[in-house]
Write a structure and sequence with these properties.
257 residues; mainly alpha; elongated; 10 helices; Arc Repressor Mutant, subunit A
């Protein structure tokens, strides 16, 4: 028994949100899979159960009232039930070209388009929830939100496209520095400069995204140093915990305020 078109799409989504993010398993609700595939939730529930029963997917944790099921791929394809994955009747094309629709149905071209799109997305740099770029992106996001509650910002979901873009900008800042540069900043320096940008009345009105933060990093660092701060952790007259309104005249002048 071969996989059908619905099962194929479900497998693509599971692959995208597990190995596509460099992880072996992930929480995936049927509602989320339904939205990602454009297939009705009841149909997703039915076909997902079939994939689990056939041991193509592994249900690491069962769904509960307040938590989605945790799903993983079963890499031991010889244990799959109901199909021989090494022949034309299963998951793998014996020519080595990858996943196919062995029935030759009209849905095959459409599924190849979906696969091509997913593989293209997979080539983009992606960051896991516990990675430094995501942590820095969320940190900057939360400070901006505190200063500007109405400012449109990425969602907190690490898998969201917008937050991934913020993480990519901060990763480039870490590895390469400003646009066109080749000397990056440590994560400690980046955090210190984020703090400074969101404590300074001028910069907090101008740094409203990770890309803008990277673009203006040289100006930020220059003003940060003039204020008596040292990103690498030396002694400093600039107290990050001190409210702006309590700064002395000398501190304001040094910061250009």
């Amino acid at each position: 028994m071969a996989i059908n078109a619905t099962q194929f799409r479900i497998l693509l989504v599971v692959w995208r949100y597990t190995y596509g993010f460099h992880r072996k398993q992930h929480k995936l609700s049927t509602t989320f899979i339904a939205r990602a595939t454009g297939i009705h939730r009841k149909q997703v529930t039915r076909e997902l159960s079939k994939l689990i029963n056939r041991k193509i997917l592994i249900e690491v944790e069962k769904p509960s009232f307040n938590s989605s099921r945790v799903i993983a791929f079963n890499k031991h394809y010889e244990s799959y039930q109901g199909a021989n994955p090494l022949t034309g009747s299963g998951l793998v094309d014996p020519t080595g070209s990858g996943l196919v629709d062995p029935t030759g149905s009209e849905s095959a071209p459409q599924e190849r388009k979906v696969l091509k799109k997913v593989l293209k997305e997979k080539s983009d740099p992606k960051f896991s929830p516990d990675s430094e770029p995501i942590k820095a992106a969320l940190y900057l996001r939360d400070l901006i939100k505190k200063n500007h509650p109405r400012q449109p910002l990425p969602p907190e979901d690490p898998d969201s496209e917008k937050l991934q873009k913020w993480a990519a900008s901060l990763d480039q800042l870490h590895r390469l520095g400003p646009p066109g540069g080749d000397k990056g900043y440590s994560w400690t320096e980046i955090k210190s400069l984020i703090d400074f940008s969101q404590a300074d009345p001028f910069w907090q009105g101008n740094i409203l995204s990770a890309s803008k933060f990277r673009e203006k990093i040289i100006n930020l660092e220059s003003q940060y140093r003039r204020a008596g701060s040292k990103p690498k952790g030396g002694s400093s007259s600039y107290n990050q915990n001190k409210p702006i309104e309590q700064w002395t005249k000398e501190e304001r002048e040094a910061a250009g305020i």
